[in-house]
Specification:
By secondary structure, this protein is mainly β. The protein is globular, with a radius of gyration of 19 Å. About 14% of the residues have low confidence. The chain has no helices and eleven strands.
Length: 141
């Protein structure tokens, strides 16, 4: 018998590595509980917010969605700092990482993304004080 297929995203995870009971209630998860979440509608590749802002620092990426081999990463900030720029996939696996010098005002960095497959990625900028800005990147080939 075929199962019902819908356009929702279903996420199942376990709170540790041991087999446990299934928990779908609104109660607080306990050790060994298996959690289940269903998102009612499917995700799309459209991006409505193309900037991340934190304490006077703005991170933006263009073009986004991207069909070329190069993206421009723009950081606008009131105070210069040394940051860590990290590109990760949807599973959180680090693809690229580099330490960068950000000047006060506007700084634009170009990144080569020719080796990336089509999909959704995340660009993280971590400041010296540990604050983190994250921006989605949609790569279309």
């Amino acid at each position: 018998m075929a199962r019902l297929v819908d356009d929702g995203v279903h996420l199942i995870w376990q709170t540790d590595n041991e087999p446990g009971s299934n928990s779908q209630s609104s109660s607080t998860p306990q050790r060994n509980d298996i959690m289940y979440v269903k998102f009612a509608s499917a995700f799309t590749s459209s991006i409505t917010n193309q900037q991340s802002v934190l304490d006077g620092t703005t991170l933006s990426i263009y073009p986004n969605p991207n069909t070329s081999d190069i993206i421009a990463v723009n950081v606008q900030t009131e105070q210069a700092f040394i940051g860590q720029l990290e590109l990760s996939d949807m599973l959180g696996q680090r693809i690229q990482s580099e330490k960068i010098q950000i000047g006060s005002g506007s700084t634009t960095i170009t990144k080569n993304i020719s080796t990336l497959a089509a999909g959704l990625y995340f660009l993280h900028l971590q400041t010296e004080n540990g604050e983190r800005l994250t921006q989605k990147i949609v790569v279309q080939k």
